[in-house]
C-alpha cells in the first residue's frame, strides 16, 4: 500500500490524526519490499575485492545483511591495508584498536569500539546485535564477549605497521592524512534482491590516535545509517567532524524528504564545511544509496573514489568533490 493511500484511508476513517501535508509523502511506498533496480553494492575507496564479494553474494540471492558482513571482512583480513582490521595502523602507543558497526534492514544495529586482538570486528558487531540485549560493546567487554562467542585472539600489529609506527615515533607529529593511498575505512551499503538495505563500516581509525579514541565509524548516524524505507549512507574521513554533524543520519533524512542521494551528500557536506573554516586541512567523504538503487557521493578533497557493483560489473567511480 502506498503511503498516500494509507493517509487517505486513515483520515477518511476519522481517527483524529493531526493534519499532515500529504505531498511530503507522495510516491513514497509505506513498506517497499522490492526494488526495480536489482541488487547493488557500493563501497568506499577502491576495495574492489570486498565490493565484488558482496555483489556476487547479492546476485546469488544473499541478504543485504550477509553481503555487507562478508564484503567488509575481506578488508579486515587484508594485512596490506593499514586502515582496517589486521595490519591496521596502531595508536600512538603501538596498540591496534578497531571500531565497527553493522545495521540491518529492520533498524537494528550492532557496534564495537576500541576492540583489540580480534580480526573481524564487524562479525563481533553482528553478534552484539543478534546475541545480546544491547547495541554497543567497547574495549575489554567487547573483547571478552568476542572470545565467548568463539573468536580467536590474534596479534593485529603486523611488522610493516609496527615499522611505520616506529618511524612516526621519531617525529611524533599528529596530523590526519587526507587520502591514505586511496584506501581507508571501509563502508559498504547493499541493496538486495528483495529491496532491503543494510550497511557496515569497519576501521582501525586514525593512525597514531590517542589510546581510547573512537571515531565516527562505529557510531550509528555518524559513520553509518540505514533506514529501510529510504536508503542508507556511510562516511569516511576525519571522524571528529563527522561525529559533530551526525552526517549519515542527516543524509538519510534528506533523502526521506525527497533529495537524491547526490543532493543529500552535498547538503550534509555543506554543513561540515560551514561549521569548520579549517575544512581544507581534512578529508570527509560520503556515499549514499536509496531504495531505487540511485547512488550519490561527495567529498571535500579530490582523491576519493568508490565502487559500485551492479549487473556483474564492479565499477570504480570518482566522487564529486568540494575543492
Ligand atoms: C575515523 N572515519 O576513525 C574514521 C577513519 C577514516 O579516513 O575514515 N579515515 O575517524
Task: Kindly list the characteristics that best describe this protein.
single chain, 8-stranded mixed beta sheet, disordered N terminus, binds N-hydroxy-L-asparagine, 323 residues, alpha+beta, 13 strands, 5-stranded mixed beta sheet, 9 helices
Descriptive report:
- The strands form two sheets. An eight-stranded mixed sheet has the order 4-3-2-6-5-1-11-12. A five-stranded mixed sheet has the order 7-8-9-10-13, with helices on one face.
- The model is unreliable at 1-32 (pLDDT under 50).
- The protein has a single domain (36-321), classed as (Glycosyl)asparaginase (Glutamine Phosphoribosylpyrophosphate, subunit 1, domain 1), CATH 3.60.20.
- The N and C termini lie far apart (43 Å).
- The chain is α+β, with helices and mostly antiparallel strands and 323 residues long.
- The relative contact order is 0.16.
- It contains nine helices and 13 strands.
- The longest helix has 15 residues, at 261-275.
- It is 31% helix and 22% strand.
- A hairpin with a 2-residue loop joins strand 11 (305-310) and strand 12.
- Bound molecules: N-hydroxy-L-asparagine.
- Residues 184-185, 203, 205-206, 215-217, 236-239 line the site of N-hydroxy-L-asparagine.
